[in-house]
Known about the structure:
Fumarate Reductase Cytochrome B subunit, elongated
Amino acid sequence: MASPQSSGYGPVAKILHWLIFGLLAAQYAIGSIMPHIGRKTVDEGWVSWHFSVGAAILFFIVIRLAWRLTHPVAQASTLTPLEQKLSALTHWALYLLVLAMTFLGWAATNSRGWDVNLFGIVTLPKISPTGSAWGHECGDIHNLLVYVLLGFIALHVAGALYHRFIKRDQVVDRMLFMKG
């Protein structure tokens, strides 16, 4: 990992951050309105969209993680040691959870005999055989981790609101395109 180079995020990191935010928001909306995946569920409509958006999230989170590792940003100087630890824990937990969720969903999809497509163009390789018990379990874990991920997203947003409205420092400005 490279050493931190700047005190703010560059345009690539900001675009990836907000793109992933949008994809995750869309994915939660799709997941809320799509039918429950059961024995007779077919891979079409909202279910198909859920798989496609999940593949896009995986694609962009891998790029975002690679970018972060190769273009690190120093933590804000206004953070206390406890805030630094909470910030690092929350950010890395978000990366880990999003990666885990996408891989678990991918395995569960494959275990049902369905393909996962990236942008409707590239079919991802199967990581779970059709009918596999562990692939089915991946789906169950995926469904539970939805709530854990939501908790960390809430913690991340709460931290941003705390810095913006209570502490009134410039932490949030580092990820915005326009300071305000």
